Amino acid sequence: MAALRPAYRSELATGTDRFFASRRTVCPWCSSARLTIRLRTTDLLQHKPGRFVLDRCADCGHVFQNPQLTTEGLEFYYRDFYDGLGERRMSGAFGGRTAMYRARAETMLPYAPAPRTWLDVGTGHGHFCGTARAVLPGTVFDGLDFTDGVELAAREGRVDHAYRGAFPDLAPELTARYDVVSMFHYLEHSTDPDRELRAAHATVRPGGHLLIEVPDPESRYARLLGRWWLPWLQPQHLHFMPVANLRRRLTELGFTVIAEQHAAPHDPVDLLAAVWLFLDHTAPREDAPWLAEPPGAFRRVLRTVLLLAGIPALVTATLLDRIAVRPLSHRLRLSNAYRLVARRD
């Protein structure tokens, strides 16, 4: 951290304004000018400086970051989250979710029980592909991502072939190559979701399938928990699409939506994450290279004391998430994600 601190200090010396594009005056999904502010927040995970605003379109319900991060801003806020300082932590977090990855792969069994080729877009370190092989042993799994995590996935044998770069830029060389293309919590990170969907249409062979999972902005948790709702994930998540919007756009592109799921993709962590985000926000910061100075001994002890005091709340939230809410998440409209399976006509 000491080695990284001077570079971060230099980069932040002129503030964060250059990390943001101009503010939009119309909805990027339907071009309506009826926009209202949905949320104001800060970076609650890395605690990098900056303030972020999500707007909501009153006509179509699309929620989007406004102003949106520029390419330079995205590079700054992603840095040391999935790679660098954060690589080991995130690899451990994603690597331990085997049951979730199996369930995602099993989603396709009724519609494509034996796909020959599968491309996972936004694959990260490839943990989904590594687990999905046990469900579909005869399938070739390729991964695509713009970070070096996809190259790590290839070295570890989780993907058969790694594509590094932007999906729309790589799509022409992948035309009609895949029986299944998956996008698990990928579209919300993209600067232009419509361009990504067109790339997916080009990449899926006729009769093949597109599998999409994204946060659900219509979840009641989004309103009840406010800025502490983890799927807002600012500043990384740029777009939140209501399910009706995404279904309609897929149909316009030449897909037929054959399955819509809300209960299955729900990840029962909302209350736990909200409590943790609040505790972490309230306690003194742990050391990070974008802080001007490392925290002193008193602040480190105070942080430890406050987090230990929050353990009962964390345990209670975990029990509520997994035992009380999970079985009723869809009925109560608390599901934090939805999943669509679409067939290319």
From TrEMBL:
It comes from the Bacteria. This is Class I SAM-dependent methyltransferase. The keyword Transferase applies. It holds the Pfam family Methyltransf_23. The lineage of its organism: Bacteria, Bacillati, Actinomycetota, Actinomycetes, Kitasatosporales. Keywords: Methyltransferase, Transferase. InterPro entries: SAM-dependent_MTases_sf. GO terms for molecular function: methyltransferase activity. GO terms for biological process: methylation. The keyword Methyltransferase applies.
